[in-house]
Amino acid sequence: MKTIKTTPYIPTTVDVQELGENRVKISAYPFESGYAVTLAHPLRRLLLSSSVGLAPIALKIEGVAHEFDSIRGIVEDVSPFIVNLKNIRFLSKQNTDESIVVNYSFKGPLNLTGAHLANADIDVVNKEAPLATINEDAVLDFSIIIQKGIGYVPSEDIRNIIPEDYIPLDAYFTPVRKAVYEIENVLVDDDPTYEKIIFEVETDGQVNPYEAFKQAIVIMHSQMAIFNADISSIPTTQKNINEDHFDFKGLLTKIDGLNLSARCFNCLDRIGIGFIGELVLMSESELKNIKNMGKKSYDEIAEKLQELGYPVGTELEDDKKAALNARIAKLKS
To answer: CA-CA distance, 89 to 206, in Å (whole number)?
Structure first.
């Protein structure tokens, strides 16, 4: 028998299944009727548009003036060389958002592949990918600028941010090859209208697909956090959240600092909770509904938060809550 509700049902179960190399299936349930598509559709868009990857953005080849030129001693002209280069997926060995300039020199005869481009600064995911065929007695000298980014950036937008002697390239940063979802009905308390989201995510190997999925959730939270700010009194202007205005008093400390038991820590880590502030932002019911969160684990967290001066269910001011969400999102990005 259906009853009158005052709050929507909170999903309790997340399952992650590896389908193969760089492919996962993620299921979450049960959602109220209509909630599944509301969450799944924007998550799919964020996976495809906001996942961070590396891509070559510019190329310089010794003796070559433009992308329609030929290369002496090389079977491929510049255009197919560029196509092959854009198919190679890179991994940075440097923890930086700055562009990386990599210089190469190869002598023939050689069938040049992605594996040859790996060095101290850069690794390659698809090492078997073909790049060029160098004839005997030929030399190929070239430089690549590799950049971290999101989405797709056309070469026209890159031309003004690279040196003049480089050829700008269309940059395909997105490491997510596939992001699809299905919605199924599930039974909860004799009600068959509840829903289950089943995501399938595949990446090119630059990033783990489950990590890409979790990052999309972080981005969604950071985008929505602006609505926690009180902007009702300023309807015609944009109000910025000044994060530096608040003293977060340990809320940005990682949950490792709570010295939780292994079982309790794993419950939180499994759903991506990394900072004490994330626990403070959760209500009592949200904490208790975490998968595998038994009474002992809940009591342990409640005791730790009480010691910090943030009992479970503490209500932060809207602007501080928004600022905390934004700061945590930055730390996780």
So the answer is: 7
Q: How far apart are CA 210 and CA 37, in angstroms?
A: 19
Q: Are residues 9 and 24 in the same domain?
A: yes
Domain count, the chain: 3
The parent domain of residue 78 ranges over 52-172
CATH of the domain at 258: 1.10.150.20
Q: How many CB atoms lie within 10 A of CB 58?
A: 23
Same domain, 161 and 73: yes
Distances (CA, A) of 32 to 27, 183, 184: 15, 12, 12
Would the pTM of this model clear 0.85, i.e. be above it? no
For each of the chain's 333 residues, which pLDDT tens digit applies?
A: 567 778 888 899 999 999 988 999 999 999 999 999 999 999 999 999 999 999 999 999 999 988 899 999 999 999 999 999 999 999 988 777 788 999 999 998 999 999 999 999 899 999 999 999 999 989 999 999 999 999 999 999 999 899 999 999 999 999 999 999 999 999 988 889 999 999 999 999 999 999 999 999 989 988 887 776 544 444 444 445 455 556 666 788 888 878 888 888 888 888 888 888 888 888 888 888 887 788 888 888 888 888 888 888 888 877 778 888 888 887 876
